[in-house]
Every structure is written in structure tokens, then in C-alpha cells.
Write a structure and sequence with these properties.
This protein is an alpha/beta fold. The chain contains 21 helices and 18 strands. The strands form three sheets. It has an eight-stranded mixed β-barrel. It has a five-stranded mixed β-sheet with strand order 6-7-5-8-9, sandwiched between helices.
């Protein structure tokens, strides 16, 4: 029960107690007063009537005395009047029953008024003729006392109602600061450290608000410091200090995780190494500061050149060498991008070009099926050396020696579009489910939903198809198809665990898809309560308004939201304090050689502390060995998925 209700009830109870005490005291005094009045009234009536009936008593005129008795009794205050002679014989006796039906029996029993008597002698001169007795009836007294009591109750009820209304508005005004404090406490719990600008004038409440504001400011500083430490750690461990790009370690981990991702299936890829000739000469001519600015400019140039491919990885590998990995591109696209990159770096603005010209070399290799990141790096390095032998500003490519073409990956974009449109129209997909296990007890806590695409007699993985679908703008239709497929499957087999489903950033930014998604979740209430929508890290930051709309929709329909592939973007920490996330899933690259990499261990352990501080779980993907699985328990990770824990299957594991 709220404090507001308790105070209102307390006011009402206080008034009831005051009324009860006042009523009892008033009734007691009124009862004593009425008793005295009845006694005096009875005696006065007896004396007056005795004088009036002297002649009738002397003449023994019973009819006249009876008329006089009846006239007195009409007032209703008397229940009996009788006259006795000197020998105590009753000459005339009249009883006048009076009804008191309007008064409750319990009130009569509680008051219990007496029936006082009045006596007077009837005489003529000095001759006494008898005694007249008048006995009062308490009925009228009961009626008057009851009327007083009910009137008082009515006034009390009205006053109590009025006071309660005044108390309602007064307390609402007085307790408004407490409501704001409650809201502020909830905001702090959600890691939104707001402060109140309006300080209550009430001293005690003002002190509480000021204390809450100080606590919010302090917690915000602590939380921001924690985010800054983790962000700085990521930059130091996985980012090049000069350019802000991935460093050698991060590039190798991400390339290896791409190759080792068994769910991804066959992928094409191009790898490029670009080297500026003789950075030492630049440093000697213009200073190390200018040399670093030049390296940073080259990094920005390469990053801008691959913006159309958001999955591309750009890194400064060492010294004057940069590496670029382009996943899921055709051979023609790879070569065109390579030429674009090489032309772009040659156009880097350098003020001292006349006195200290810049020269670049580039090595390029392409694999129609990426199976080894190390092999591609070695081939690109060989091609780089060949380019250096050809003179300045040259690049060379080294084709895949096996040159194995995977038919499905060799389709043109038009063939892909035809295939995907036919797939969407014919609902030619098969959902697969990979279990997500709790690290603490090995229990299944959810299933990650993957999708397979029918291609004749074979099934294509989503990783081979979705990048093409993104380029063709068909992701909203595919995301809709996947959810409709889950709804259809749910009718045949009710899901018992949570289902993690990826949503494309393109879908989240498409108004028509979001409108459809809202109606779908409203209709599929039971399925919606099982869904956890995972959005990619960079996708969350693309459009804050679209993401907020998704947050509101998931909360409205009892679904959940999570971040997938966390850790790839160094600026991805700010939203952790504002989004109501179910979990954060760390990218698989941070699992590579985890037992031998203290930086990755410390990074994951810090993320665990950060996530748990706001009741968000931390999950990892890509567990492929028992050693990795055991390491997660020591780091405090909540749950994980990977082929070591279970392969994707056409039915959820029970």
C-alpha cells in the first residue's frame, strides 16, 4: 500500500475515532439531561393535572377524569396515568402505549432510559381525596436522541468527506517530490542518472532530493569511468593508437573467427595489403607528428573507400602496412575495390609531395572459398613483394592456386535477385535452431534461430545469402519471412525456450516493416513473449530513432532486445546505459586463444561486471572447444553458443 493511501486512511480513521469519542460523550450528557427532564416533566404534569381534576375527583366524575388523562397523553410523553383513593384503590387507570419503531433496538438497549414517576395529592381544601401518579414514556426521548445522533453522523460524514478531499489534494501536492524521487530511483536503477532541478521547500524532502541528486551524479561518474576504462582497454588492446583502426591482433582474430565460423559455410573474400614506401623518410623530413598524421589520413582514406561494404575490416598491421579484408565479394568486385583503394591512397593529401614524394605498393589475393586467413595473408604478402619488384606505385594480385569455384557463389547479382525473390515468394526457407547454454549449469536457456535457404537438393546458410540480400535491399522481406516461418512452426510445436532472432538494420529502419512487425507481435502474443531480437552493434547506432521505436515495440509486446556481435566497434558503449537489453553477445573474435590472451580475458571480465551492474546478461558466440567453454565460467559469462555446445538443427533441442 502506498504512503499516500496510508495517510488518507489514517486521516479517515482519526476522524472516526474523534467522532466515536465525541458521540459517546455527547450521548452520555444528553442521556443525563433527558433523564432529569423526564423526571421534572412527569412531576410537573402530575401536579398540574392533580389541581385540574380536584372537582372531578370530588364528584367522582370518571368520564371527566378520563378525558383529562387522554388530553395529557396526546403529547406521547407518558405511558401510564392512574388515580388511587386513600385506601390505595385504583379509581381510574389509563395506559398509553407509544411505538418507537423508528429507533433501532440496539440504540434503545444501549441508552436504556428509565421511566420516572411524578406523584401529586388530589385534595379539596384540607380534605385529601387520593394520589395521582404519572409515569413517563422514554419513547420520545429515544427518538430525539436518535435524531440528534443521526444528524451528527451526517454532519460528520460531510465534514470527513470534505477534509478527505482537502487532504487528498494537500497530500498529493506534498508527496509529489516523493513520486519524483521514486521515478529518479527507477531511472538510476536503469542506469539513467537523472537529477531533479526542482528542490522541495519542505526541509526533510529537500534533503532527500539533494541526497538523491548527489548519489545520481556520483553513480554517473562511476559508470562513465567504467565505460571509459573498458573503452580505453579496447582501444589499447584492439585498436591502433595512431589511426584508430584495428591493430594486427584484432585483425587476425576477426579474420580467424570469420574462417572458423562453421555456421557461415562457404564464403568468398579478398585480402589486400597496402604499404607506403619508407615511412622513416617521411618522419625524418617532416617529423614523427606529421608522419602519424599521414598514417591517420591513409587509414581514413581506406575506411571511406569501403563504406559501401560495412563488413569490411580495415587495419594497420604494422608500421607503414595496412590490411583490408573484403568478405563476400565476387572476383570482379574484389579487383574493382582493390583498384579503388589503391587509387584512393595515392590521392592522399601530402603538402610536401614535391620534396618528399609518397610511393605505395599493394598486394592482392582473392579466394572463392576462404578456408585459411593465414594463407590469404601469406599470398597477399607475396603479391606485395612482387609489386615492389615492379617499381614504385604498383600493385599485384595473386589468384587462388586451386581456383575452386562454388557454383552458388558464382551467381551474378541479377541471378541472386531472381533466386531471392523466388525464395521469398515460395517460402523456401528452413529454420534451424542452435542451443544457447547457461555456463553455470549447462542448461539450455535459449535457441539461436538460423535459417537455411532451399537451393535444389542442398541448403544454403544464411551467412552465404544474407550479405547479398542486404546489397539488394531484400532484408525486410526476408526478416518478415523468417518470423512468419517461426509463427507457422509454433503452431505445430510450442517453443519452450527463448528464441534469438537477428533483425537487419535495414529492416529496423524501414517504416513498412516496423508497421508489419507491430501487428505481427500483437497477433502472435505467445510467440512474441519468447522472442529476443538481436541487432548488430553497428546497426544499433545507425538510427537512434528507429532503435528506440524497436525498444518501445518489444516492451509493449513482451519481447526482448539484445546486441549481437558486441565489441567490434570501439564507440559502442554509450547506449549500454539507456537501452533495456536482455543480453549482450560478444563477438566470436574475442574467444580466439582466450586462454593465452590476458587482454581479452580482462576485457570480457570487465564487460561481465558492466553488464551485471544493470541486470544484463553477457553471452558469447563461437565456442568451438572445451578449453574455451571452461574459460568462460572463470570469467563470469552467463551463457554461450557454438558448435562445441550444439550444432544448428531443424528442431529445437529439448
Amino acid at each position: 500500500m502506498t504512503l499516500f493511501r496510508q495517510l488518507i486512511i489514517a486521516v479517515v480513521i482519526l476522524f472516526i475515532c474523534l467522532y466515536a469519542g465525541n458521540t459517546m460523550f455527547t450521548l452520555h450528557n444528553n442521556r443525563l439531561l433527558v433523564e432529569d427532564q423526564m423526571e421534572v416533566h412527569a412531576q410537573d404534569t402530575a401536579t398540574s393535572l392533580a389541581l385540574s381534576m380536584t372537582q372531578a375527583a370530588q364528584d367522582k366524575d370518571i368520564a371527566t377524569m378520563d378525558t383529562m388523562f387522554n388530553a395529557v397523553s396526546d403529547s406521547g410523553y407518558y405511558q401510564r396515568i392512574y388515580f388511587t383513593d386513600l385506601e390505595q384503590n385504583i379509581v381510574i387507570d389509563r395506559e398509553f402505549p407509544i411505538s418507537i419503531e423508528t429507533v433501532p433496538n440496539w440504540f434503545v438497549a444501549m441508552m436504556s432510559l428509565p421511566s420516572p414517576e411524578g406523584r401529586a395529592e388530589v385534595s379539596s381544601g384540607w380534605s385529601q381525596m387520593g394520589v395521582l401518579t404519572v409515569i413517563s414514556h422514554p419513547g420520545q426521548a429515544y427518538s430525539k436522541l436518535w435524531k440528534v445522533t443521526t444528524t451528527q453522523l451526517g454532519w460528520f460524514a460531510g465534514i470527513t468527506l470534505l477534509v478527505s478531499l482537502l487532504a487528498f489534494f494537500a497530500l498529493k501536492w506534498l508527496l509529489a517530490p516523493l513520486t519524483r524521487v521514486e521515478q529518479q530511483a527507477n531511472e538510476i536503477y536503469e542506469k539513467r542518472f537523472v537529477t531533479q532541478d526542482k528542490i522541495p521547500k519542505t526541509r526533510e524532502l529537500g534533503r532527500v532530493v539533494l541526497a538523491m541528486n548527489r548519489m545520481a551524479d556520483h553513480l554517473k561518474e562511476v559508470f562513465d569511468d567504467q565505460l571509459a576504462v573498458i573503452g580505453q582497454l579496447q582501444k589499447q588492446s584492439f585498436r591502433d593508437a595512431v589511426t584508430g583502426l584495428s591493430n594486427r591482433s584484432d585483425f587476425d582474430n576477426r579474420l580467424s573467427s570469420f574462417v572458423d565460423d562453421k555456421e557461415a559455410g562457404a564464403h568468398t573474400g579478398a585480402l589486400i595489403i597496402i604499404a607506403m614506401q619508407d615511412i622513416a623518410a617521411v618522419n625524418e623530413f617532416a617529423g614523427r607528428g606529421e608522419g602519424n598524421n599521414l598514417l591517420k589520413a591513409i587509414g581514413e582514406c581506406l575506411t571511406n573507400a569501403v563504406l559501401a561494404n560495412p563488413r569490411a575490416v580495415v587495419a594497420r598491421r604494422q608500421g607503414q602496412e595496412f590490411t583490408v579484408f573484403l568478405p563476400d565479394v565476387t572476383s570482379q568486385e574484389g579487383e574493382e575495390l582493390a583498384g579503388t583503394l589503391f587509387n584512393a591512397v595515392q590521392g592522399v593529401n601530402w603538402l610536401h609531395h614535391d620534396k618528399c614524394p609518397l610511393y605505395f605498393h599493394m598486394g592482392y589475393t582473392y579466394h572463392s572459398e576462404v578456408t585459411s586467413g593465414g594463407d590469404m595473408l601469406g599470398e597477399a604478402d607475396i603479391a606485395l613483394k612482387q609489386a615492389k619488384l615492379q617499381g614504385t606505385n604498383h600493385w599485384a594480385k595473386l589468384s587462388d592456386v586451386q581456383d575452386v569455384e562454388v557454383p552458388v557463389l558464382g551467381r551474378t547479382l541479377q541471378e541472386w535477385q531472381d533466386y531471392l525473390e523466388q525464395t521469398i515468394k515460395g517460402h523456401q526457407i528452413v529454420p534451424h535452431y542452435q542451443p544457447v547454454l547457461s555456463v553455470s549449469d549447462n542448461e539450455i536457456v535459449a535457441h539461436k534461430v538460423f535459417v537455411r535457404f532451399l537451393n535444389g537438393d542442398e541448403l544454403l546458410t544464411a551467412a552465404a545469402v544474407l550479405p547479398i540480400a542486404e546489397r539488394l535491399g531484400l532484408m525486410p522481406q526476408l526478416d518478415q519471412l523468417i518470423l512468419e516461418s517461426l509463427a507457422s512452426t509454433n503452431r505445430e510445436q510450442v517453443f519452450t525456450c527463448k528464441l534469438c532472432v537477428n533483425l537487419s538494420k535495414i529492416s529496423v529502419q524501414t517504416k513498412s516493416f516496423m508497421a508489419w512487425l507491430e501487428s505481427f507481435l500483437v497477433i502472435q502474443r505467445e510467440l512474441a513473449s519468447k522472442l529476443i531480437f538481436e541487432v548488430s552493434e553497428f546497426g544499433e547506432k545507425v538510427d537512434e530513432q528507429s532503435t528506440r521505436q524497436l525498444v518501445d515495440l518489444t516492451q509493449k509486446c513482451s519481447a526482448s532486445l539484445a546486441i549481437d556481435g558486441f565489441g567490434l566497434k570501439s564507440s559502442a558503449f554509450g547506449y549500454l546505459g539507456s537501452l533495456p537489453l536482455h543480453h549482450i553477445k560478444v563477438h566470436r573474435s574475442f574467444l580466439r586463444e582466450l586462454d593465452q590472451n590476458p587482454d581479452n580475458q580482462f576485457y570480457i571480465r570487465s564487460l561481465v561486471q558492466l553488464a551485471h551492474s544493470r541486470d544484463v546478461q553477457l553471452w558469447l558466440e563461437g565456442v568451438e572447444s572445451e578449453l574455451e567453454w571452461k574459460q568462460l565460467a572463470e570469467l563470469g559469462v552467463d551463457a554461450a553458443q557454438g558448435y562445441f555446445l550444439g550444432k544448428p538443427q531443424s528442431k529445437p533441442v529439448e
